[in-house]
Amino acid sequence: MIDSPIFYATTVHLDHIVTALNCLTPFGVKGEMLITIDKNGLSFAQENNHVIKIQLVLSRELFQTFHYSPITETSLTKVSLRLDHVLDSLNISNDRNDIIECTLTYNGDGSPFILIFEDNMITESVEYSTYLLKDLDNTGLVLDRTRLQFECIIKGDVLHNALHDLKEIGCKDCYFYAIHNETTKKPLFALISRSQQGLSKIILPNERSILEKFEIYANDSTTLLYDHPMISVFDYGMLDKIRASARIASKIMIRRDVHGLMTVNILNETKDILRPNDQEYKRTRAISGNNLPSHYPGIIIEICMLEKALPELPDVNEIKVMMIEYMGSESRHNFLPNTQQPPKKTAHDDKEEENSDGYEAASQDLPLFF
């Protein structure tokens, strides 16, 4: 009798897995991805130069069959695979017009990671030699949740379009400019590009339906800070790696702590996933029984990246001057720090009627992932 492998899972949602893994390609399509298997599903992680890291989770609800029997209940199984090798196999099988059942199987250290593709006519098996690289070093890439400076939740397509526009104008450095008006309670969130053409800005919409949450803190994750801009700078080459993930996002949470680390948490609803092309989308919708499970939470992604450097004072002043010109002289006293008095602070328990006009703070009914 042949013993069952410690892990095997079966799914028909190959297009969904391809969509998810394509989010990793900006981090190095020919690089190694670290796969972690646990009782809740699979996670895929990559890192670039210890400056930016991505972790993507596919929960067990995506699979019709999911079996994991580790040596101990709390143990994890980790293995490294080439991303391009896995994508090549999935894409070839996913191009067929029939329902393809894919089984993933792995039996621990020293054994191959196997993909088995099966339809009504043929069964194919692909084996990958495996090895475990040293685990990803998370030093400096863990968010300090007790010392946040900035936090917002924005619609995914809005951020994706903004990042795409920055690419079109040849952005080299991207500045995040955020400020909260105490008088109107309205936020201002801008992405400012420095390129060969100089400075240019993209003002993100601040409607409640688009910018669901927007808070600037006094370095403590609790005390709200008004009329005091938060400015940080990122290398656009690194920041652009987020764009593929933002393309499939329903909501994106951006947080930055006092140490210059920004995390981008991406959650998509299954109905919002963009297919690689219309033909594949129509084919998938036409296949009976191939819709994603209703209890499947969607693709969950976390990206952590370090700020390029503290913004230089001349750059900060140049950005402030540009934003003053944008906001106009009438708004100047509302958005810039008061030079005579320290910035005003309020606690989270401010009266709700203060937010009744203008921008409304986000409710607490946010997805559990956030």
UniProtKB/TrEMBL annotation:
One of its GO terms (molecular function) is nuclease activity. This is DNA damage checkpoint control protein RAD17. Belongs to the rad1 family. InterPro entries: Rad17, Rad1_Rec1_Rad17. GO terms for cellular component: checkpoint clamp complex. The keyword Metal-binding does not apply. Component of the checkpoint clamp complex involved in the surveillance mechanism that allows the DNA repair pathways to act to restore the integrity of the DNA prior to DNA synthesis or separation of the replicated chromosomes. Residues 333-370 are annotated as: Disordered. It is found in: Nucleus. The keyword Hydrolase applies. GO terms for biological process: DNA damage checkpoint signaling; double-strand break repair; reciprocal meiotic recombination. It comes from Kluyveromyces lactis (strain ATCC 8585 / CBS 2359 / DSM 70799 / NBRC 1267 / NRRL Y-1140 / WM37).
